[in-house]
Amino acid sequence: SEKVEARNRIRRLLCHFFKDRECATLVRPTEGERDLQRLNQMPLEDLRPEFVNQINTLRNKVYKRLRTKSVNGQAVNGNMFISLCMAYIEAINSGSIPSIENAWTYVSRSESEKAVEKSTEKYNRFMNSEIENKLPLDEDTLKKLHRETKYAALKALQRDAIGTGNDMQDYELTLRAKLSEKFKEIKKKNNRAMTRKCENYFEEHYEPIRRRLKNAEYSKFVDYQRELREFQQDFTKEGPSGPRKESILQEFVGRVSQEAADSFIQTSTLSNNNEAKMLQEKVRLLENEISQRKEDSAADKQFFSKTMEQLEQERSSLRATQEGYMSKIDKLKKDRENLKKTLDQ
């Protein structure tokens, strides 16, 4: 009959597709009919001991005979198996014929992309833990740490990614690019930490020089430059260690030297103007005295003549002094320009 033939067909298919087979008989899990309807909710202690022992024996037998599923020589883990199933289901639902090759390509790409992200995250975690509260670090130490961590991340990618040849090279290039960008961010963070530390050093150790400059305690600009050189030497020996140390120092020295030069010129100009006003006032008093004496008596002609000579001498002295002051101011301005050109270079 057709029913018998249908059963026989199922038997033949099972025998054909499952050639290596074995049967196991199990006793009833429990005697109660109601309990049979909720076996998944019952603890093992409430089941018959014979059933529990038989289940454990069967499970151990299955585990011992299981072989790792693989596709194209690559072991399939749980996530990959689920992805394969989803690819098959999607193909069936769309009316297409499931293709192991296409599904495996999808799974390989997905797993490899996850491996890239996982390796990148591993790099980030390790680098952050190593540099936390330790910045700034010198460039050699930071580069060595980057190389070691990048090597470990690439090893993790090679272990977890699925692919060979050009595919694996593409994933490695992607990971290298990501790690390069991460390292650039870390270097910027390291540079900012070094800048802050240097600024704190400058704020503390340059303050005495700034105070003396403000109080006009330097008689000559070379005196200020000599003390500034000593400050630079101290910074080189005792200042914070890290990247861009010399360039940060030169930027600071250029800035404060320009400020000092402007201060010297302003102070010299003010002093020269005050002295010139004093001389002009003295000349004015002498001229008033001469005028008064001319009116008082013609007999004082000799005194008038001597006073005129003195006045001329004072005028000559005033002109010479003003010329000297102007020469000094011009020299200071030239020194400032030369200093600025040197710093710009």
List its salient traits.
rod-shaped, 345 residues, mainly alpha, 2 strands, two-stranded antiparallel sheet
Structural class comes to mainly alpha
The counted number of beta strands is 2
Euclidean distance between termini CA atoms: 104 Å
Molecular shape: rod-shaped
Q: How do the strands line up in the largest sheet?
A: 1-2
Query: How do the SSEs run, as a string of H and E?
Result: HHHEEHHHHHHHH
Over the alpha carbons, how many angstroms does the gyration radius reach? Answer: 47 Å
**How many helix segments?**
11
What's the average pLDDT? 80
Beta-strand fraction estimate: under 5%
Can you tell me the residue ranges where pLDDT is under 50 for at least 5 consecutive residues?
Answer: none
Oligomer state of the chains in this structure? single chain
Main beta sheet, described? 2 strands, antiparallel
Name the helicity range: over 70%
Give a description of the structure:
- By secondary structure, the protein is mostly helical.
- Helix content is 78%, strand content 1%.
- The protein has eleven helices and two strands; from the N terminus they run H-H-H-E-E-H-H-H-H-H-H-H-H.
- Strands 1-2 form a two-stranded antiparallel ribbon.
- Helix 4 (78-93) crosses helix 5 (100-131) and helix 7 packs parallel to helix 10.
- The N and C termini lie far apart (104 Å).
Please write out the topology.
Elements (H helix, E strand, L loop, with lengths): L1 H16 L15 H4 L12 H17 L4 E2 L2 E2 L2 H16 L6 H32 L7 H22 L5 H40 L1 H8 L6 H18 L6 H52 L4 H44 L1
Helix pairs in contact: 4-5, 5-6, 5-7, 6-7, 7-10, 9-10, 10-11
